[in-house]
Write a structure and sequence with these properties.
This protein is of the alpha+beta class and 350 residues long. It has helices spanning 41-44, 63-72, 77-84, 146-154, 164-198, 203-224, 227-236, 247-310, 325-346; strands at residues 21-27, 32-37, 52-58, 91-94, 99-108, 120-129, 133-138.
Length: 350
């Protein structure tokens, strides 16, 4: 992995080749203006310190544009490096003039074949809250925050009548909503697998599905669990960027986050139970196979004994010279086999 800390040269460490594109919304209670561009100079003239400015950046390939944005808003160089580090852990960090949130977004991976298992892909989103601005940095061109943009244009959620931290709470609700949707999908898939396991279907196929769901679960847990304490610390902090009038909205986000965390815990327990059930089912299948093999072997034990006796080549074995000896031997072995089988059926061992 490329490391920005080793040099002053900025390097985007992700794999996305999305060209950098900027979209700026400036608004107040009475009006809203939008502008777009491929570099910061094309939108910087539209910034207005008398309004709230929401700058969306899609694609982090153009590191110089990202640098210009951060320099304009006086964002620390270390934070700039974190923005470009696609593998940065989830974190919430308070600074004197802004708050940085590095989060992950999830979506189902594209399948090359219909029979491919469901997998999750993630991309990093960095949100920076300032006194009169919100910056969002996304690795790819996405419509993830389009609902927020529409609500802002129509002022559905009264976003334009509130400060920038309220916009942050709306964006966080969208992110947590993404978590809720993905975690619920995993939970539903685990329940379906549990029902399938109880029917004792193809164990090998189910084992592969369990591993796939486990990978998805671990990916989400690694990204979401750090928020548990960091978000509480943000709520309890005394940052001047978090206005008291908007605290209720951040508490609502916390309620949604706690629901996601509880669902993740439920998924963990369900996944653990599924693994135990899968192992138990495999043991049952193996026991059933061994039982069938044992029954077959038991049926042939007396037959093998008779064949062994008649194959000892002693001279004084009158039945060997008997005219009906061969037919008698077959009849005796068939009768013994049927009797042993009937005994097993009566005892309900088979």
């Amino acid at each position: 992995m490329k490391n920005n800390l080793l040099s002053e040269k900025l390097i985007y460490t992700g794999e996305s080749q999305t060209p950098t594109h900027l979209h700026l919304c400036t608004y107040n209670l009475n009006e809203m203006q939008e502008s777009s561009g491929t570099n910061f100079h094309e939108v910087s003239n539209s910034l207005n310190n008398e309004r709230i400015n929401w700058l969306q950046v899609h694609g982090l390939k153009d590191t110089e544009t990202i640098r210009e944005i951060c320099e304009h808003f006086e964002i620390d160089f270390l934070v700039l490096q974190d923005i470009l580090n696609a593998d940065h852990p989830t974190k919430i960090e308070e600074h004197d003039k802004y708050i940085v949130l590095i989060l992950k977004l999830f979506h189902p991976a594209k399948k090359e074949n219909e029979n491919d298992l469901d997998e999750l892909e993630q991309q990093q989103v960095c949100i920076i809250l300032g006194a009169n601005y919100v910056l969002t940095f996304l690795e790819k061109e996405t419509n993830f925050f389009d609902d927020v943009s529409i609500a802002l244009r129509n002022d559905v959620l009264k976003i334009r009548s509130r400060q920038s931290d309220y916009l942050l709470s709306v964006l966080l609700n969208s992110v947590i909503g993404n978590y809720t949707s993905m975690v619920s999908d995993i939970d539903d898939a685990l329940e379906d697998l549990e029902e399938e396991l109880l029917r004792i279907s193809d164990g090998d196929d189910i084992g592969i599905q369990i591993q796939s769901l486990r990978r998805q679960y671990m990916l989400m847990k690694k990204s979401i669990f750090p928020l548990k304490e960091q978000y509480i610390r943000l709520l309890r902090g005394d940052s001047t960027l978090m206005h008291k009038a908007n605290r209720a909205f951040f508490n609502d986000v916390n309620d949604h986050l706690q629901f996601v965390l509880q669902t993740i815990e439920i998924c963990r327990e369900t996944l653990s139970s599924l693994v135990d059930l899968y192992i138990s089912n495999n043991d049952l299948r193996m026991n059933d196979i061994m039982k069938r093999l044992t029954i077959v072997s038991t049926i042939f034990i007396p037959l093998t004994f008779l064949v062994g006796v008649w194959g000892m080549n002693f001279k004084m074995m009158p039945e060997l010279d008997w005219r009906y000896g061969y037919c008698f031997a077959w009849a005796l072995m068939i009768i013994i086999g049927i009797m042993v089988y009937a005994f097993f059926r009566k005892k309900k061992w088979y």
